[in-house]
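Notebook entry, structure prediction.
Reason for the run: the old model in the group folder had no record of what sequence produced it. Starting over properly, with the input documented here first.
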Amino acid sequence: MKILLTGANGYIGMRLLPLLLEQDHEVVCAVRNKNRLSVSTAILKRIEIVEIDFLNDPNPELLPKDIDAAYYLIHSMSSSTTDFDEQEEISAKNFNIYLEHTHCKQVIYVGGIVNDNNLSKHLWSRKNVEETLYKGKASLTVLRAAIIVGSGSASFEIIRDLCEKLPVMVTPKWVKTRCQPIAIRDVLTYLTGVLGTKQCYNESFDIGGPDILSYKEMMLGYSTFRELNLYIITLPFLSPKISSYWLYFVTSTSYKLALNLVDSMRVEVITQDTRLQKILDVQPISYLKAIELAFKKIKQNQVVSSWKDSMVSGRFKKEVKQYVEVPDQGCVKDKQKIQLKDPEKTLENIWSIGGERGWYYANWLWKIRGYIDKIFGGVGLRRGRTHPNKIYEGDVLDFWRVILADKKQKRLLLFAEMKVPGEAWLEFKIDDKNILHQTATFRPRGLWGRLYWYTMLPFHYFIFDGMIKKIASNE
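New structure, fully documented this time:
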């Protein structure tokens, strides 16, 4: 079959793509920026890529006509606290228009469990997208899931952050809300299982794991698995806004996502049917088994995708390619260079920067800068990085975003997503003479921008000088 995969560089899409190829399907990946599709060269040779932003006016000529089935994996919850539902509806309507000009017979969509009478804005939007897709030409199959547990998933990483960092928690009352978590492995089994299964055409199915747990029980279960001592104190008077700030400051989530998550956490998400489980003969994985499998991937450095690499987890309003050309006019710069003894080792050091490896010099100052960034509404350092030594365009490196990662040209370019009065770039490049050039560029916004740069100048000299020496020393 020839399959259209939207959201191909998202959390689920990145994991679904190799499975579809293993089943010998032809796959057309629809992404906003093809350079952000972080897959191996072997996979790139086997797929077709089309650049489509479903929020823009449709251009059906971009899609092949011989599409047999399509996966709709587009969500906008992290991008806004106000109009993400409008964006999701526009995307779904435009998606329908694109498919009208193809031979597509089935659309598969992952939505949310909507069995409660009092839905959150997030869950209402998922239901609205489902109803919009039903109006399309192709038959629709909807998989309604609760929270998804797997290495790199937002739910898993938030629980991990909370339990690993807070031995004693004072929590809002929503921790008593029940849900039915499902392992990412089971989600993928369902996604591939319903493909081409006519019994699933024009049907909506609830999918969940075997356990019905409160969020408190999920955190305690995680702590038991990790052999952590965790004490949870629940206070009924914490407002949704305070709860959102609590999640934002303790975990790696953005404030927008935290606010939308808290709004949804008051709603029970529990399955009401097991039809699909019987149709496909699936035996769901338990919550604790899902955690165990997630940690196996983490320990083996095999995390395929992470929600933190999503563009909406930071401050980006434009595509990364618009920041590839570092400006010269109206900018201030810190330039460092050093002769290298082992350029290949230095290149590996550059490709391993950030995350657990840190920034090579004065890491405590980087951490302080991360805390300050969080206080002022920035992303902080908690996003880390998905893989210890692999980098792709669009990836997250703490509070930086990868703009360009060209190992052949020995160049790495980062753009700052921390809160600063201007725009900032950090570039590493090894030239033909084996000299490492490290350049920090700042384009200040007004007087405050320039004041910020010159106030930080002594720290910049201290940090950047030490950093390039450590990177080049090959320690």
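Summary: The longest strand covers residues 435-444.
The old model has been moved to the deprecated folder.
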